[in-house]
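Shipment paperwork, digital attachment
Item: protein structure file
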Amino acid sequence: MAVVTLETNRIRTPRGPIAEFILQQPLGAISFVIIAAMMFAGIFSEWVAPYDPLEIDFAAILSPPSWEHWCGTDAYGRDICSRLIYGSRTALIIGFFSSFIGSSLGAILGIASAYFGGRIDNIIQRIVDILLAFPLIVLALVVVAALRRFVIGGVDVNLIFAIAIPIIPRVARVVRAAALGVRVMPYVDAARAAGYSNSRIIFRHMAPNVVAPYLIMLTAFIAQAILAEASLSFLGLGVAEPTPAWGLMLSGNAADFYREAPWMILFPGVAISLAVFAFNLFGDSLRDFLDPRFKV
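Attachment content:
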């Protein structure tokens, strides 16, 4: 009898959320490792990169991949591997802050729309409908073309807002759907009866209950923001030379020498694809892990 009890206790031993996530979502754990490697490369670029990404070496122009230059060099003799490592910093900064600003503002609008309802809900949703009529990259193109460059630390701040604005309506629509179910809960009615202010009810009683869809959208739109930044940089409306950026590495001389030096396009393209794939996969895994319907 004691053996049975011991075995039962061993089976019911609680595990931490990280261990549960790894066991339930192994692909999500792999994608998180890729994201962590990108973050490590971006944060410690000065120590990880073998060369200065801005250093020009005319003696090594268009050198193929070798032990000296793992990913080859570009038309200016700059080491592509070093520019990829520094470019991860640019991609993550723009991707994270664009997604964070857009998702946060969208979550606030979605919760407010669901909570107040009536005319306020109609006004917010009609604005959301107008913004949703434009694809993300098209709306970002319009915004970035209308704003002037405002560079801080080599990153265009207006580019971050240009990518964040198209994210707002997409997150607002999803969070509003989740908040509509929270609005009719008894504890929200009790908070109203107690005389709490609208801001207190929204931020202390409704917002914590829509964290799961918010986190999922935040993670998923980091991938979209990285792809949008690369597209805008490729079109010449994003990051400017000589800042290392993956999209910028695909434009200019890379398009001119793609036959003689295919590595100039291959490695930045792989970096963009791997980053977008990792964040999308991690977002899907996080959704499956946080949604109780997938655990039944």
